[in-house]
Amino acid sequence: MEEINLLMHGFAVALQPENMLLMLVGVVLGVLIGVLPGLGGANGIAILLPLTFAMPPVSAIIMLSCIYWGALFGGAITSILFNIPGEPWSVATTFDGYPMAQQGKAGEALTAAFTASFFGAFVAVVMITFIAPVIAGFALKFGPPEFFAVMFLSFACFVGMSKGAPLKTLSAMAIGFLLAAVGMDTVTGALRMTFGATEMIRGFDFLVAVIGLFGISEILCSIEDGLRFKGQKAKIDLKVVLRTWAELPKHWFIAVRSAIIGCWMGITPAGATPASFMSYGVARRMSKDGKDFGKGRIEGVVAPETAAHAAGTSALLPMLTLGVPGSPTAAVLLGGLIMWGLQPGPMLFVEQKEFVWGLVASMYLGNIAGLIVVLVAVPWFAAILRVPFPIIAALILVVCAIGAFTVSNAEFDIVLMLIFGVVGYVLKKLDYPLAPLVLALVLGDRTEEAFRQSLLLSQGSLGVFFNNWLVGSIMAVGIAMFAWPLLNWAWGKLPHVAARRVAAA
Amino acid sequence: MNLSGEASAGGITSRAAEVGTALVMAAMGAAAIWDSARIGAGWGADGPLSGTFPFWIGVMLVAASLGTLARALAKPGQDGAMFVTWPQLRLVMSVLLPTIAYVAAIPFTGLYLASAALVVWFMTRLGGFRLRSAIPAGIATAVVAFTVFEIWFLVALPKGPIETWLGF
Lengths: 505, 168
Fold this sequence. Notes:
The complex is a heterodimer.
Chain A (H helix, E strand, L loop, with lengths): L1 H13 L2 H19 L5 H8 L8 H26 L8 H12 L3 H34 L4 H18 L4 H16 L1 E2 L6 E2 L13 H19 L13 H10 L4 H16 L4 H15 L12 H16 L1 H7 L5 H12 L8 H4 L1 H32 L4 H20 L3 H18 L5 H23 L11 H25 L1 H10 L1
Antiparallel strand pairs in A: 1-2
Helix pairs in contact in A: 1-17, 2-4, 2-17, 3-4, 3-9, 3-15, 3-18, 4-5, 4-6, 4-13, 4-15, 4-17, 5-6, 5-13, 6-10, 6-11, 6-13, 6-14, 6-17, 7-8, 7-20, 7-21, 8-20, 9-18, 9-19, 11-12, 11-13, 12-13, 15-20, 18-19
Chain B lengths: L10 E3 H26 L3 E2 L2 E2 L3 H23 L7 E4 H24 L1 H16 L4 H22 L8 H6 L2
Antiparallel strand pairs in B: 1-4, 2-3
């Protein structure tokens, strides 16, 4: 029960007045970011990251992670009231949330969404509290080959578990790795892929890429559908909340199942978005009223919201214990750790106990704060979308430009942000996944370093990745994940399967 | 990326965009392979050379892009799926072009003046506001940004002649 003791210490850190204040600021900012199109968890945190350099790391991570929780809550507001998912992981919430709002049950839908989110996050935080130290302890024995294997596995998961074309996932990932390699090679000092341009020597900062890819591109995508938002009225009062809460325990089984799906998908870097879809799909298939889904059933709100929030939260588990983030937002937080001078990975649990447990404690408190904030303030947040889109868009563009500039005080970064924005717009429209690109950009240097160190250990033999059971089995799972789409495709080409598919169609 | 030559009357087809994007990516991969081979990819005197890792990533990118290209070409092109229609593209450009101008102006005018101008432009051109409400909104944006960043957080943002004239 050492964890409980450490957690109590963490609460002592998180409950300091200035940290409580930052928590509240973070949650409110986060909900705001979640509501606004073009600002999401990943790029919202990327924009604010440079402003936290002067803070103690634990206060900074508390504020930034609370922005993340706030954004997870906020995404549901626009999905339900406006049928516009504020975040990709709340797309599945629109299926039943918006019909409920049209039927005048917006209050019930919002209460159910927030409560489900909170439940999902809570399950994930409890899991992190007890499992993270175990994994970190285990990972202390890791050497470079094991770390490379873990990163290999997480990238393989993107390929094996993505719903889209595996080749596109592979392309996006390769671009991320290449962008990470641009500039000075830290080992030999050689200049790589600068093609003679001095601006390229610094390399690409992933924060600038995140702001462009997720921020600017989102503005360009949302403008396509026109310039106006049409929304339903938001009214939540205590009576609606209590009535919905009285009804929710009926759906405990869906919530538990969705939380488990979410935790699993969050730890493997599949992320919150597929988790929400999967959980929604399972809930619809298992329900005896499956055909009523999409017409405004409360289960259709509970399932995706629980899973999304559980996944979003548990994405921090591999980030903290292994230094391998499970989502783009976790990747940005990881970038923050490095900037504050902390070395991500299992040593964090040994050397930075106060930081780790302060963060874990703030997850409990931040989600409680988030639940209260959204329940109380939903109408005000919804009112933001009644501000005309041109004003919102202009302000978001200005904020993104400021964010890109402050990363390293370089005007050229603003140009890069814009280029990344246009690239992101094209990639998004062609269904290239952006998450593997960002993760590869963040982890590129460390993946390469682990790869090189492993090869140095073995004098160049790839056998080093298979010379003990631990690294060998991680690599084997990774290879299986990589090959999964290929096997699936080959299976479909077998004569008898192909014939059956034609017959079914 | 100008693909309009291949497009039908209504806009850029998905197929044209797929093909164009895959070709650009394959070219990026080829550039990476070329540059990595130049600085050395393989086993050197004291470990893997600098180009080794990017070299193989480049190979992966070229292979994946060519695969995507083949799939895009194999699909019949007549299904008419649109990447973007001309009216949509016009809307996107109505946001993108002023943003490009904004980014280009920052080194000369500083960030605050350019931001104020961007807000005014968006409000009058896209939002149908009158200048008498847009100009105060633009100035307010600049003043709020200045207060938050320069005064509260002590972060210096790009400044131009006006700020110099005001003594900052």
